[in-house]
Amino acid sequence: MKSYLFLLLAIIAETIATSALKSSAQFSKPIPSIITVLGYGCAFYFLSLTLEKIPVGIAYAIWSGVGIILITLAGIVLFKQVPDLPAIIGLVLIIVGVIVINVFSKTAAH
């Protein structure tokens, strides 16, 4: 269970870092640039802790799937980047994929 907490922290840190990356204006603004570097550092640190118990493919599937959803929500709220219907359909498919992996895959149980 602790591994999933580390994975959640990795996802949150990555989402913050990616949001700050957009605001960094190609690393020309110091504060968002620092947040980006620290956020990615924290994300990879927590992901490394996650990989002690969760297989890398499963952890990465969850990280990328949940991260895509969170960064899409951040894009909507922070940058007014509203996805169109095909993008929403794709996001739903990603969510379904993450659910299938976690509910039905025997690999996720290891």
Automatic annotation (TrEMBL):
The signal peptide stretch is none
Q: Where are the transmembrane segments?
A: 33-51, 58-79, 85-104
Q: Which UniProt keywords apply?
A: Cell membrane, Membrane, Transmembrane, Transmembrane helix, Transport
- GO MF terms on file? transmembrane transporter activity
The cross-references to InterPro entries, in alphabetical order and at most eight, read: EmrE-like, Small_drug/metabolite_transptr, Small_multidrug_res
Q: Tell where it localizes.
A: Cell membrane
Principal location listed in the UniProt entry: membrane
Q: Which GO terms describe its cellular component?
A: plasma membrane
Q: How would you describe this protein's topology in the membrane?
A: Multi-pass membrane protein
GO BP terms: namely: xenobiotic detoxification by transmembrane export across the plasma membrane
Please report which protein family the annotation says this sequence is part of. Answer: Belongs to the drug/metabolite transporter (DMT) superfamily. Small multidrug resistance (SMR) (TC 2.A.7.1) family.
Q: What is this protein called?
A: Multidrug efflux SMR transporter
